[in-house]
Design goal:
2 copies of one chain form a homodimer. By secondary structure, the first copy, chain A, is of the alpha+beta class. Helix content of chain A is 34%, strand content 26%. Chain A contains 8 helices and 10 strands. A 7-stranded mixed sheet of chain A has the order 5-7-4-8-6-9-10. The longest helix of chain A has 17 residues. The first copy, chain A, is globular, with a radius of gyration of 19 Å.
C-alpha cells in the first residue's frame, strides 16, 4: 500500500498497517488458504516518528494474531516521497483443493460474498478478509474458480473469464449493491449510479466464485447454516460464449465497463 | 530498493532489478541458506514503459536462474514518486547449521570475505552474493556468528557484538581495503580516507563471520583450496570487553565510527 494511492496522510496508521496485511489475507482467502507467516517492508519518509512505526505495526499485529500469522521479518528503507508498506505472505493450502482463476466452466453458477461498491467510504480500511469463508468453501465444495474482488466485480470476473476461456451473464437484480454505494450516489447526484459502483469500484475484498449449477442450491443452504450473518448471492452464470453480459428487465446487453485500472 | 536512495533514474533497469534480488540473496547467504522462491512487489511511477518492466525483470531473472530461484508471484502498484522494488525471498537452511548474529564468543577469530569500501563506485550494482561461500562455511565449519555487510564493517560488526554481548579488536593492517576505496580517496583529496571507507561504507555485501580461534587456520587452508580466487581475511578477534577497538602501529584506540545509518 502506497501513500496517496491506497491511503492518505490523514489515515490512521493502525488502519494503514491493517489494510496492508488484510489485502494479502484476501489473496490467500481466494485460494482457500491459511496464512502462516508475513514479511514486511516498510518505506519511511525522511521525517517519521517512532510512534508512527509502532502504530503501523500494531495495526498489522492485531490482524495477524487474529489469524495466527507470525510477522517473521522484513526490512525498513528510506522512501523520500512518503510511506509505503509491502507485505509478502506465506499461506498453506490443501494440495488437492486449490481454487484458481482458470477452472470456470459453462453452466457454472456465479456467487459473490457480501455486498459490493463504495468501499472508499470506509470499508477499504476495515474489511474482514474472507479467510474462514474461503477455507470452508474450498474444503467443502468443488470450487471451479475463485478470486478476491480488488479491482471491482466487472474487472475481476473478466480475469476469471479470460483465464478460463468462457463468458458470463449477470442478472442485474441479483447483484448485491452495498449501502455505501447507494448512499454515495444519493449524496452526490452527479456521481456513479450504485449498480455501476458495484460493478467497477475497487477494494471490495469479497470472494467471487463459480461452482457447478448442480452444487448451487446445496452451497446456498450450507452457507446459511455456517455463516448466517454473511451474504452469499448467486449473481449469474458462466456461458461458453465469450464476453460479459448483463440481463435486466429490458433484455440482455453487453457490459463494456471494466473494473479499476491501476495505471489509467 | 528505492529510487534516489539505492539507485538513480540513470541506473540501468537490469542492474536495478538485479540489485533488488541480490541484496536478498546476500541475507540468505549470511545464514548459510539456499534461496528457493521470490515474491516481487513493483512500485511504478505514473509514466513508465513496458520496456522498463521487462528490463527490471530480466535483471532479476538472470540472477534468479543462476541460483535456481523461482520468482513465484508478487504485485504491481502505482507509486507516484518513483520506482521501487520490494523482494521477499524464501530460502532453506540446514536445521542444525544456521549461523546467527548472537553466537560470537570471546577468543573467536573474525573473518571477512572480499575487499571493503567504495561500493558506490559500481560494486553495489553488480556484486556477487556470497551464497556458495555462505553454504560452504556453514556446512563445513562451526560458524559462531555471521552477517552480511550492508551497513559497513564497523556498523555490522557492532550488530554482532551487541547481539552476542562481546567486544572486538580489529588489526588496522589486516583490513582488506578495496581498490575502489583507494581510488576514490585519491581522486578526491578531501574525501574519505580508504580505511575509513572500508570501515563505514555501506553495500559491500561481503560476509563477516567469527569462528573459534582453534578453527581459524584450518578454515583459511580449506578456503584457499575451495575458493582460490576469493579473499578471506582474518581481521581481528572477539573479546569479552565490550566495545570496538582498532590496533595499529601506535597502539590500541577505541573505534567510534559507525556504519551507514539509514535515517540520518
Amino acid at each position: 500500500v502506497v501513500e496517496d494511492v491506497h491511503f492518505t496522510r490523514d489515515t490512521s496508521p493502525q488502519k494503514i498497517g491493517r489494510k496492508a496485511l488484510a489485502r494479502c489475507f484476501s489473496d490467500i482467502a481466494a485460494m482457500g488458504g491459511r496464512p502462516t507467516a508475513a514479511v514486511v517492508t516498510l518505506g519511511l519518509p525522511a521525517e517519521f516518528s517512532p510512534e508512527l512505526v509502532e502504530a503501523l505495526y500494531s495495526g498489522m499485529r492485531d490482524l495477524a494474531s487474529t489469524w495466527q500469522t507470525a510477522i517473521v521479518g522484513g526490512e525498513t528503507v528510506r522512501n523520500p516521497a512518503g510511506l509505503f508498506i509491502s507485505v509478502a505472505l506465506i499461506g498453506l493450502v490443501q494440495r488437492n483443493a486449490i481454487p484458481t482463476r482458470s477452472g470456470a466452466k459453462a453452466g457454472d453458477a456465479i456467487f459473490v460474498t457480501g455486498t459490493l461498491g463504495g468501499s472508499l467510504a470506509g470499508k477499504h480500511l476495515d474489511f474482514e478478509p474472507r479467510l474462514a469463508e474461503g477455507q470452508w468453501l474450498s474444503q467443502n465444495f468443488s470450487i471451479h474458480s475463485m478470486i478476491d474482488l480488488s479491482d471491482g466485480l466487472a474487472g475481476d470476473l473478466r480475469h476469471i473469464l479470460e483465464a478460463s476461456g468462457v463468458g458470463a451473464e449477470l442478472r442485474r437484480d441479483s447483484i448485491p449493491v452495498s449501502q455505501a454505494a447507494r448512499l454515495r450516489a444519493r449524496e452526490n447526484g452527479a456521481g456513479k449510479p450504485p449498480l455501476l459502483a458495484a460493478l467497477t469500484d475497487g477494494e471490495d475484498f469479497e470472494l467471487l466464485l463459480t461452482v457447478s449449477s448442480h452444487d448451487a442450491v446445496r452451497l446456498l443452504d450450507a452457507w446459511k447454516e455456517k455463516f448466517p450473518d454473511q451474504k452469499l448471492t448467486c449473481i449469474g452464470r458462466i456461458e461458453s460464449q465469450p464476453g460479459l453480459r448483463l440481463r435486466d428487465s429490458e433484455g440482455l446487453k453487453t457490459l463494456s465497463v471494466h473494473g479499476y485500472t491501476h495505471f489509467s
